[in-house]
Amino acid sequence: MKAKISQIQLDIDYRCPNCYLHFRLSNNDIPQKKPKKLECPECAQQVSLPTIQITRGVEKPPKAEKESPLAKKAALALRSQGYNLGEAKTLISSIYDKNMSLADLIKAAISNDEPKTRKI
Q: Average pLDDT, stretch 11-30?
């Protein structure tokens, strides 16, 4: 089993350019959208803290499922019956079941077709 990240603790140390005093900001105090101005507690110098973009890794979209060989054969059979390939794939994808035979798949696709939408 893989562990999942539940919380990220981020601390960033800054240093005053005038007196070199170090100070730390954590999580929500870190400027992310626009620079933040602070006054150094040691020398009262105005310090501008640059923004830091915190991003997660880019998630890849899931891969599209491959069309089964049975569905391809059924679509080609419907194409030979006068359907265009897009119509055939739509009809088959709406009723496709991996346990169906090729003949049953073709019959079910033809029986589910609405005559109003087909051009003859």
A: 86
How many alpha carbons fall within 13 Å on the CB side of residue 19?
Answer: 12
Q: Which residue has the tokens 């696709």?
A: 109
- Quickly list DSSP for 43-110: T--EEEEPP----PPPPPPPPPPPPPHHHHHHHHHHHHTT--HHHHHHHHHHH--TTS-HHHHHHHHH
Question: What structural domains does the chain harbor?
Answer: 11-49 (no CATH), 69-112 (1.10.8)
Classify the phi-psi angles of 92: left when phi > 0, otherwise alpha if psi is within -120 to 50, otherwise beta: alpha
Give 95-113 pLDDT, tens digit per residue: 888 888 899 988 888 887 7
The reported pTM is 0.42
What are the backbone dihedrals phi and psi of residue 82, each rounded to the nearest 5 degrees, phi first? 110, -5
Mean pLDDT of the chain: 82
DSSP 14: E
